[in-house]
Amino acid sequence: MSDKDTLNKMLAEDSRDYISTESEWTFDLIQTYDREIGKIAEGYELDTYPNQIEIISAEQMMDAYASVGMPVGYQHWSYGKQFVSIEKNYRRGQMGLAYEIVINSDPCIAYLMEENTMTMQALVIAHACYGHNSFFKGNYLFRTWTDASSIIDYLVFAKNYVNSCEEKYGVDEVEQILDACHALMNYGVDRYKRPYPISAEEEKRRVKEREEILQAQVNELWRTIPKFEKGEANRPKTRFPSEPQENILYFLEKKAPLLEPWQRELVRIVRKIAQYFYPQRQTQVMNEGWATFWHYTLLNDLYAQGKVTDGFMFEFLQSHAGVVFQPEFDSKYYSGINPYALGFSMMQDIKRICQNPTAEDKRWFPDIAGSNWLETLKFAMQNFKDESFILQFLSPKIMREFKLFSILDDDLEKELQVAAIHDDEGYKFLRESLGAQYNLSMNEPNIQVYDVDLRGTRAMKLRHFQHNRRPLHEEGAQEVLKHLHTLWKFDVDLESVDDNKVKESWHCPPPSTDTDVN
Amino acid sequence: MSYIVDRRLNGKNKSTVNRTRFLRRYKKHIKQAVSDAVNKRSITDLEHGENVSIPNKDISEPRFSHKKGGRREMVHPGNKEFISGDRIKRPDGQGGSGSGEGEASNSGEGMDEFVFQITQDEFLEFLFEDLELPNLVKRQLAGMESFKLRRAGFVSSGSPSKINVVRSLKQATGRRVAFGAASRRRLKEVEMLLIEEQEKIEQDQAAIALLEDEIAKLKRKLAGIPFIDDIDLRYNLHVKVPQPTSKAVMFCVMDVSGSMNQSMKDIAKRFFILLYLFLQRNYQKIEVVFIRHHTSAKEVDEDEFFYSRETGGTIVSSALKLMKEVMDERYPASEWNIYGAQASDGDNWNDDSPVCKKLLIDEILPFVQYFSYIEINPRRHQALWREYETIAEEYGDIFAMQQIMDQADIYPVFRELFQKRSNA
């Protein structure tokens, strides 16, 4: 290229309409970027909640981080522990802070850290305020399980309620209950029933009412006056609950015989918060993939419009590449599949399949190959969770790109076995295997309330239904049982069952080893 | 439409409560770390925070989780040479580690210890927990010499400079309303009557004149009510509240005779520093007087106190005399809380020990809050100890003595000396 050409090019660039050329951000610039990005997002018809962009300092980011991203949270030592360890790592420089935290609420709250450059702020705006935000609003799990308009209210209610309990009953009492609930947090969700929307107003009104009703329900366990019915004694023993209950916290809230009303309310609070986070745990790949896809698309469009400089793009692409980096299994940085990488690749791939399908794509995805990419992508975003999303949309091309392979680890075998790799025979198997990997109910031990001895000791029996013979972690189980015992207050048994055979069992309180001599 | 909010000015210490809760929960561990640290740290190093480590086991929040075993499929990226059906040796150690198991059971990063920092304040908090300064209360009540003015409501007399305008005007308004009420009522009536009279066709001029006369009188009367009166005035009242004396002086008395070696001095120094930090937490202002002695006593600065070498015999009473002199001269007991700490190896001229006892009982103990004596001496006690023992029996509440054998004893002895006593 001659000097003249370079000069012309430079002149042409100068005449472009950059939003900013410096890396410092200002409030005006943030507003301008948000407007411009918003305009492009509107062009793609991204349906979002209104955005509330909050600029915070690094310390505040640590605070937000420590409270698992809840903007208001009740007080608990475990958040303090989180904070302490984050603070330590951050101060030592072992850990950068997250660029962003975004909260599934209406308006959608996104935090920007003041230390970031303008480019990073724009990236976060595109990622959080338009990517995650539209995911929260569109995905069926979020629509079903969370109520964005009332979550903040509810968290405030929860915080105040916990506070008032601490005042009334003491910090230790409350802490004990919360500890116990936290241990069971993953068992506080109904997987199949749609919960009622929660709102603080409603909650307050109903707390009282609930307290009374609950106490009345519990009485079933407490009925001591015998009913004189013929054949009572001979009646076949029925289990209680009649169906095993997977929502252990719910069961405790409603049925634990000796809990005080305020303790039930605490159980409920933890349960509701667990439920609020439930969709996030099931849509990591999709959620991050979607948000990453959109920050990539939106910022590239911004560049195409000549609104940002080359320098901006270099910085952006560098952090983008960092985010979607997938270390290979033998790398020392490897810690599983990076949801950003997988999600982003899959989203890009769906777009590609729609726009430029190959013969392979037409064979694998006859219904979406050649369709409108935006509609297809939105359909995918709205109607799937990680497990089903992968089952539906993971293409052979992605499996080849990631060089996926499946390892079968069977304790009956001496060696590990490579079950499938990215080849024609392996694609289907790999896809199913990877999908299953994101199935929460497979990853978490399947433990349910199986039976309560209504007429005798009131002991509660839990069952762990083994999947693929995978055993429970003993110490963890024993500790959780202790917590369970705190709430149930009668004996708690846990049996690990495979094929209707009890493999292992735990008890709390532990059975006394010294038997009575007389 | 997006809203952009600047939250940076909001409190950044949202997690403080949670952090405190965390510290509270693991108090036992932290206390252990703190008391270990006190013994390990170099002498001048008590001004820092401390790293506390807690076994992950104690701190983890239990969850149900799977352990190794059973049949399990995992998909990994980055295949290089495997083809399906390959058999691979199980990697050593934890099979399938690093396989990205969603959320692993413990939040730790595979470390056995959860390590974090506490600040200097927190460090000292834990260090001096359950300790108290003896006789602090007594002096606070006794030390009535300094006062602080505090607001105590309003009174109806006082100096003009203390008039409370708002209160006074409120009072005046009330008075005007009350005093004028009857007249105003009558005025209204009369005005009505007047209007009635004037609307009559045949006006009774005499009656009208009478009414108008009364109206004028009432108006005059109303106008006569003073806008503000002496009785309305309210004054701010300030009362003198006795201010607990919060000045303290600490006398460090140390034997530097030939028999005290450097390590004994180090021990003494640590003890003095602990005492200093502890007093600092109880008093706003604290001064330290360093007195060292062999056969004669001298007031010195900190460096000289700890590091210069001297030899010679020992006469303890010289130091006590000097202490008394300094007290009389600069630190009257009415203004100062006086603490004495004496460290020695117990050597003294035999004839001198009874003198020390007398000095302490007559000249020093009546004026000090607390006097502690530590003997740094792995050997047998000598005359000084025995004399002091008799003092301790008699004046147990303000005089304490302990023996320190080696460095590890410092903190326990310190705790012993200042531990909370149930009898107040």
> Which structural class do the helices and strands of chain B define?
alpha/beta
Spatial order of the strands forming the largest sheet of chain A: 6-7-8-9
Mean pLDDT of chain B: 80
Specify the biggest β-sheet of chain B: 6 strands, mixed
* Beta-strand proportion of chain A: 5-15%
Number of strands of chain A: 9
Q: List unreliable stretches of 5+ residues of chain A.
A: 514-518
**Order of H and E elements of chain B:** EHHEHEEEHHEHHEEHEEHHEHEHEH
Instruction: State the distance separating the first and last CA atoms of chain A.
Output: 103 Å
Shape call of chain A: globular
Integer-rounded radius of gyration of chain B: 39 Å
Q: How much helical structure, as a percent, in the residues of chain A?
A: 40-55%
Which segments of chain B are poorly predicted (pLDDT under 50) over 5 or more consecutive residues? Answer: 93-110
The first-to-last residue Cα distance of chain B is 65 Å
Description:
The complex is a heterodimer of chains A (518) and B (424). Chain A is α/β, with parallel strands linked by helices and 518 residues long. Chain A has 21 helices and 9 strands. In chain A, the strands form 3 sheets. In chain A, strands 6-7-8-9 form a 4-stranded mixed sheet. In chain A, strands 1-3-2 form a 3-stranded mixed sheet. Mean pLDDT of chain A is 86; it is low at 514-518. Chain B is α/β, with parallel strands linked by helices. Chain B is built from 13 helices and 13 strands. Chain B has helices at residues 16-25, 27-40, 56-59, 120-127, 136-142, 165-199, 205-224, 262-282, 302-307, 316-330, 352-364, 383-394, 410-418; strands at 2-6, 50-55, 71-76, 87-88, 113-118, 147-155, 235-242, 247-255, 285-293, 297-300, 337-344, 370-376, 399-404. Mean pLDDT of chain B is 80; it is low at 93-110. Chains A and B meet through helix 2, strand 1, helix 3, helix 4 and helix 8 of A and strand 1, helix 1, strand 3, strand 4 and strand 5 of B. Strand 5 (416-421) of chain A pairs antiparallel with strand 4 (87-88) of chain B, so a sheet runs across the interface.
